[in-house]
Design brief:
The complex is a heterodimer of chains A (270) and B (312). By secondary structure, chain A is an alpha/beta fold. Chain A contains nine helices and ten strands. In chain A, a hairpin with a 2-residue loop joins strand 9 and strand 10. Chain B has a two-stranded antiparallel sheet with strand order 1-4. In chain B, strands 2-3 form a two-stranded antiparallel sheet. In chain B, strand 2 and strand 3 form a beta hairpin. The longest helix of chain B is centred in the middle third of the chain and has 27 residues. Classes of the chains: A alpha/beta (270), B mainly alpha (312). At the A-B interface, helix 2 and helix 3 of A face helix 7 and helix 8 of B.
Chain lengths: 270, 312
């Protein structure tokens, strides 16, 4: 399904600001799997998602999706296969366009956009049903500009838009991080609903140990541009947030040790 | 009366320019500086073709097409060579000055009205009002030719307005609107933003070239300087129109562009009538745009606040 092989990416190469964001990441996702990605800030988890989405091209390695080698595809071409929700609730919708228009845009994700009407009565009806099914009472506000809605409502609609055309891969980039707890719960509930109904293959970056422990069927933790561990199957089902926290702690200690050891070596030999 | 009809006609003619500016500046948010050049290019092309004996309608359409091409070049410089938008526009605008001189062969081409689209107005007047040389419109005297010119121009402006309105309700038009609103989102939905910019500027400068071609025929000559200040003129019309309609819906914005263009032309005509030195016109126009951009922030103390609240 999604096959990432030894992907590397360095930003600002050979400058003082050089960041080796991905240092040889390999990951394989089966069809229908729901994978949570956790890690500290700067561990490369969002970079990994952006590499798959095509926000930049990787330096080396290979990314395959649905049997196609998409490593060199530009971002807009990958959109045919990939639905995305961003962290910023304002990134996923066009504020001065109406709810119906935003959904109509999503209904043509990755397809040719020609000179036929975007919102025929038939399509409007279908979109209305999808909005009504979310249970947010937005179905009577289809002609309101989306900018008049709250962050939580906008993020819910972005989620609906990303999943509308059943993408081969759904990418969620900390999509509840900027929301208040109540909206975040609601968006998570919808996320589960959409994923389980359409069996969407999902890669979700999250900062919440709760979400990582209780959602999905697999957790991977990124650390310094690499995958530090990968838990699935029975072990994932037994996983509790505290286990993940202690793993974080372990990693932090290991990193500290590494650094002090490196420091010591530098002091002795340089 | 002649002054009023003339202002209305020119205002409607320049509303095509305002449509163009609306598309580049508002719909896809591309600060396009090609305008002054493509307006002249449209006029120059049409004039050159008319003088060499082409049908005025064909000449006008060719004027629109050359303008459109200039816009596409600007967008291509930005999209494929990564040149800054403003600089792309400046490059094309500067190059067009020479191109326009080449097209015309000299800096000014006079156009006899029998050969231009104005002849349609003459014929229509002759057919409708036969021998009458003076019409009475609401108690005012007016020449049949001017009235017919105004009627035809109203049809043209309304026609293009409707076509654009329909276009913005298609899948392609909707995606184009999303570029100016949230380009990150529309890219994630699979739109090639660069290619869409090229299409948008093609349409935008096509309308601007068309406006230039009509203008040259109306005023009876094409001049290599005729485009100077047209960009700011169009921006003024669009801003004025926006404040008249007060919403961001595309149908209203299009209507507003026509209203703004006509109103602005009327204001200028009145100012000139009151003794404004024509040489000061560009200065006044620029000052007007400045005021229109800055004043709302002071007056309501809120237009910025309102926008911020809406985002949050």
């Amino acid at each position: 399904m999604l096959e990432i092989t030894d992907v590397k990416k360095t930003f600002h190469a050979s400058t003082p600001n050089e960041v080796r964001a991905l240092q040889g990441v390999s990951l394989s996702l089966e069809r229908g799997s729901f994978v949570c990605v956790i890690g500290t800030n700067g561990s490369g988890k969002s970079t990994l998602l952006n590499a798959v989405a095509g926000a930049f091209l990787v330096d080396s390695g290979r990314i395959e999706l649905d049997g196609a080698d998409i490593t060199r595809w530009p971002e807009h071409r990958r959109a045919k296969l990939i639905g995305r929700v961003f962290q910023d609730p304002f990134s996923g919708t066009a504020p001065s366009m109406t709810i119906a228009e935003n959904l109509a845009l999503a209904a043509r994700r990755g397809q040719r956009r020609g000179l036929n009407w975007a919102l025929t009565p038939g399509r409007r009806g279908k979109l209305r049903d999808r909005v009504a099914a979310m249970g947010l009472n937005l179905e009577d506000r289809l002609n309101n500009p989306i900018g008049t809605l709250s962050g939580g409502q906008r993020q819910s609609l972005t989620l609906l838009m990303a999943g509308l055309m059943k993408p081969s891969l759904l990418l969620l980039d900390e999509h509840t991080a900027a929301l208040d707890p109540k909206s975040a719960d609601q968006v998570i509930r919808l996320t589960q609903e959409f994923i389980s109904r359409d069996h969407l293959t999902t890669l979700m970056v999250t900062h919440s140990m709760q979400q990582a422990a209780f959602l999905g069927d697999r957790v991977i933790m990124m650390d310094r541009g690499q995958i530090a561990f990968d838990i699935s199957g029975q072990a994932k089902r037994r996983l509790r947030p505290e286990d993940l926290l202690s793993r974080f702690e372990d990693l932090r200690r290991a990193n500290q040790l590494d650094e002090s050891a490196a420091e010591m070596l530098r002091a002795q030999y340089v | 009366m002649t002054l009023l009809i003339g202002s209305l006609t020119v205002g409607l003619m320049l509303s095509l320019l305002a449509f163009g500016i609306l598309i580049s500046y508002r719909v896809v948010a591309f600060e396009d500086l090609t305008v002054d050049g493509s307006f002249t290019l449209g006029g120059a092309t049409a004039a050159m073709l008319i003088v060499s004996g082409a049908d005025p309608l064909v000449a006008t359409l060719c004027g629109a097409l050359t303008g459109a091409t200039a816009g596409a070049v600007t967008a291509t410089l930005h999209a494929h060579f990564g040149i800054n938008r403003l600089l792309s526009g400046i490059l094309v605008m500067t190059a067009l000055y020479s191109v326009n001189l080449r097209v015309m062969g000299k800096s000014n081409i006079p156009l006899p009205s029998q050969k231009t689209l104005m002849n349609f107005a003459n014929q229509l007047a002759a057919r409708l009002f036969a021998e009458r040389t003076v019409l009475h419109v609401a108690g005012w005297e007016a020449s049949p030719r001017d009235v017919c010119g105004l009627a035809l121009m109203s049809l043209v402006a309304a026609g293009f307005g409707l076509v654009l309105f329909a276009f913005f309700r298609t899948n392609l038009g909707l995606a184009m609107q999303a570029i100016g609103d949230n380009s990150r989102m529309i890219r994630a939905l699979g739109v090639n933003v660069e290619r869409m910019m090229i299409v948008a500027l093609f349409i935008s400068n096509g309308l601007i070239g068309l406006s230039g071609a009509l203008m040259a025929q109306y005023q009876g000559f094409a001049d290599v300087q005729m485009g100077i200040g047209m960009l700011v003129w169009g921006v003024a019309s669009v801003i004025l129109g926006e404040s008249l309609v007060g919403t961001k819906k595309i149908g209203f914005l299009l209507t507003g562009a026509v209203m703004g263009s006509v109103l602005f032309r009327l204001l200028v005509a009145i100012a000139l009538r009151w003794g404004l030195n024509p040489n000061d016109l560009k200065l006044i126009t620029a000052a007007f745009v400045f005021a229109a951009l800055v004043l709302p922030k002071f007056v309501s103390g809120g237009s910025r606040l309102v926008r911020r609240e809406r985002r949050a």
